[in-house]
Design a protein that fits this description.
Blueprint: H1 2-27, E1 44-50, E2 55-61, E3 70-73, H2 82-93, E4 98-102
Parallel strand pairs: 3-4
Antiparallel strand pairs: 1-2, 2-4
């Protein structure tokens, strides 16, 4: 008798699980990733800087509420400079980052 009850409980559990899975699959909508291939919603400004230790350019959002996280863009080799990197910086700034490109 106990085995029969166990089989019945297992069958009810399986049917309940299938019903739950079907309801989740019916009502769940797919998640769409944001399209970061286009500029973001914020306007940006680029300024050059020159200190005793380094020089380069900084891109930052001119609207929106901060604080804004900062990215330091590194070219990784000696053949690139801030002018070649700041385009990426402007793109990141349009999404709410401050981007610094150092020579």
């Amino acid at each position: 008798m106990a085995l029969r009850s166990f089989k019945l409980d297992l069958a009810v559990f399986r049917i309940g699980g299938l019903a739950l899975a079907a309801s989740v699959a019916t009502f769940a909508s797919p998640v769409r990733a944001a399209d970061y291939s286009q500029p973001g919603p914020l306007t940006t400004t680029v300024q050059s800087f020159n200190t005793s230790g380094a020089n380069g350019k900084v891109a930052y959002p001119t609207n929106g509420s901060g604080p804004f996280p900062t990215l330091v863009l590194g070219h990784g080799a000696l053949f690139a400079n801030a002018d070649q990197q700041i385009g990426w910086g402007e793109h990141f700034a349009s999404y709410g980052f401050v981007a610094v490109a150092v020579n």
